[in-house]
Fold this protein.
Amino acid sequence: MKAVVTATPNKPQATHSRVTLRRVLGAAAIGASLLFAGQAAAQQVFAAASMKDALDDLSAAYTKETGKKPVLVYGASSTLARQIEKGAPADLFISADQDWMDYAQKHDLIDTASRRNLLGNELVLIAPTTTSGDVDLKPGVDLDGKLGNGKLAMGDPAHVPAGLYGKAALEKLGVWSKVQSKVAAADNVRNALLLVARGEAPYGIVYKTDANAEKRVRIAGTFPADSHAPIVYPVAVTKQADRAAADPFYKFITTPAALATFQRYGFTRP
């Protein structure tokens, strides 16, 4: 059975944590709502965890330009979609895959006319920078042998997009059945990244942008593009959105200048 892991910056090991990401994000969303109650046009943005560095940068630029500071809530796309469904305040939703945006659309949570594919990404295998050697991610690769008694950190393959992509890629390479029992399933891709950065897992599966954002890890291999579905980040304005708040930021992050910033962090065009 796979271990479900929640990594946090203040805990050396979060394997036994009983605090779910859903509670954390629910509290964050409620806290953000209370904090900005009474302030006009505060954009509430629910975005995939892998977007944090780039979106933080763009948010700062937007604040400098407009004087308005967006409220950014990051997490697994699955958790964010369910939080929006339960009424958490969100003006924009940016998912790390099409499936969870499809879920939001099916449940009438978004303005379908505003939905568009914003970004792309790559899936990589990472290792701590204290190690060396690349892994040739080809069919039959002996990833099980390389892991030894260690864990393979990745987003929970049951619902986290990065984990779903990772599982699909490992199945395509014919090695999923051999490594499944060694998976340390994290609540989101950034928590998987932390496990490898701390040296708690010898390898992990994350997006290229995550690897670029963490100096304590290196890219040990890149999964073939045809080993998983294309990684696409769709964005949409929610049905409950304050359009006076949502539309300007939506337009801002879809400009050529914003897309250039995303590309600087390693994202690709979809």
